[in-house]
Design a protein that fits this description.
single chain; mainly beta; seven-stranded antiparallel sheet; ATP/GTP-binding protein
């Protein structure tokens, strides 16, 4: 599974491996050993279930992934009263009381949303090893968000034009450009008691007609219909070729559509964003000149 790698992006990375004097937390004793994921790997506490949305070119799917410690051993994703598994093999929950005071004494007082967390490390725990760490958002939702984002399946752009690129396009004749399959895609990662949904939203398409120019559009473009004037330009997204494709590879231009998707997530009382994604598609376009035939 994709481990917790982006939790600290909102804050400076600060990990203090501090062995504390035992701090009374009865929840530790009861939760450890309550489930052995190596013996019962299908236990819901050991799995994250991920489901993706369906749509044209992107059928919905459902699958489960196990949670692992840094050694690759399957371990619980979370432990009631103890915390959430992070990439270092520790189970974290917000530091409070004496733990928070100890963390602030060692590493300073933080500015929100940065927050001190205390982790009990290992499964079963390493005796006496308690570690402080700064997170910009709660480890549980972030872990599920990482998995949901990774599971997103974005359809490739489906390019449409008028005049159709299946025939020769003429210079100085406006070409309407638009895309099919334009809409949000989602994926949800869940464990018992919590789910996080990642959403990828198409926001922009950059067309590269192949003649050295580019056209940026904020939406899918306007589909041409039989009632539209074929000599008119698209009201939202189009291009007019001013040179033929003679001399280009295969005597055709390569028309490319590159779609930018903004990615966000929400769940577990948290929200966040992930890096933009991009999908592309290409078609060949033969561009020529109109021919006049003289009789007589």
């Amino acid at each position: 599974m994709r481990r917790l790698t982006t939790v600290l992006t909102a804050t400076a990375v600060l990990v203090l491996a501090i062995t504390l004097a035992p701090i009374g937390r009865p929840a530790f004793a009861g939760a450890w050993g309550s489930v052995d994921c190596r013996k019962t790997p299908s236990n819901p506490q050991c799995l994250v279930t991920v489901g993706t949305s369906g749509g044209p070119g992107s059928p919905g799917t459902t699958a489960s992934s196990a949670c692992h410690d840094p050694n690759g051993t399957v371990v619980p994703c979370s432990l009631p009263g103890v915390g959430w598994l992070a990439d270092d093999g520790c189970y974290y929950q917000p530091a409070t009381g004496d733990e928070l005071a100890a963390a602030e004494a060692a590493g300073g007082i933080l500015t929100p949303p940065a927050q001190w967390y205390v982790g009990q490390c290992g499964y079963p725990p390493v005796p006496g090893l308690t570690q402080f760490r700064v997170f910009g958002s709660a480890p549980g939702p972030q872990l599920l968000a990482d998995m949901a984002v990774k599971a997103l399946r974005l359809p490739a752009p489906v390019i449409r034009t008028n005049p159709s690129v299946a025939a020769q396009v003429l210079i100085r004749v406006p070409v309407w450009l638009w895309l099919d399959s334009w809409g949000d895609q989602t994926a949800t990662a869940s464990v018992p008691g919590m789910s996080v949904t990642a959403t990828a939203r198409p926001t922009r398409v950059v067309w590269s007609p192949g003649d050295g120019t580019s056209v940026a559009c904020t939406g899918a473009g306007t589909p041409w219909s039989a009632g539209d004037d074929p000599a008119s330009a698209s009201p939202t997204c189009g291009h007019t070729y001013l040179s033929t494709s003679a001399g280009a590879p295969g005597n055709a231009f390569t028309l490319t559509a590159a779609v930018t998707w903004q990615v966000s997530w929400a769940g577990g009382g948290q929200t966040g964003t992930a890096p933009d994604m991009q999908t592309t598609a290409q078609v060949g376009v033969t561009v020529g000149t109109s021919q006049t035939v003289t009789i007589g």
